[in-house]
Automatic annotation (TrEMBL):
Superkingdom classification of source: Bacteria
Pfam families: TerB (PF05099)
Protein name (record): Putative tellurite resistance protein B-like protein
Annotated ranges, domain Co-chaperone DjlA N-terminal: 33-138
Organism, as annotated: Rhizobium loti (Mesorhizobium loti)
Length: 143
């Protein structure tokens, strides 16, 4: 009980730990913005896309579930300052595995609602071209 209260007090002064993590890492911020662009690419936000986004935040980046809404709010407030080309530029110098991870996460979001819109395909294709990644590298075998 006392630790929970101390944690809440710390959060008031330090801010949300998930938001701090995203704000302190430009590459992570850029990736999350690209994932959001994929969510919005077909013109609607589906629950399954948001579930996929939340899963990626938690599993791939260690962002706690309790922080994800605050992270989304942060991205909405500050993400307008970064366009897609600027976000992708941060990835060009990263190793191929990290670039493949971004592409895979974008594909996961696009496939989440079981409908691949042409706008999602275009965004993914353009991202793959900019990152110099083959579409074959994004396809993962079914488990």
């Amino acid at each position: 009980m006392a630790f929970a209260l101390l944690d809440q007090i710390r959060q008031i002064f330090d801010g949300d730990p998930g938001v701090r993590k995203v704000a302190d890492d430009p590459v992570l911020s850029a990736e999350l913005l690209m994932l959001f662009r994929m969510i919005l690419a077909d013109g609607s936000v589906s629950e399954s896309e948001m579930v996929a986004f939340r899963r990626i935040c938690k599993d791939a980046f260690g962002i706690q579930e309790s922080s994800i809404d605050s992270v989304i709010e942060y991205l909405n407030e500050f993400g307008y300052e970064t366009n897609g080309s600027q976000a992708i530029a941060l990835f060009r110098d990263l190793d191929i595995e990290r670039r493949k991870q971004l592409a895979q996460h974008m594909a996961d979001i696009a496939k989440a609602d079981s409908q691949l819109a042409e706008s999602e395909v275009r965004l993914l294709r353009r991202t793959l071209d900019l990152l110099d990644i083959s579409p074959v590298d994004v396809v993962k075998p079914e488990e």
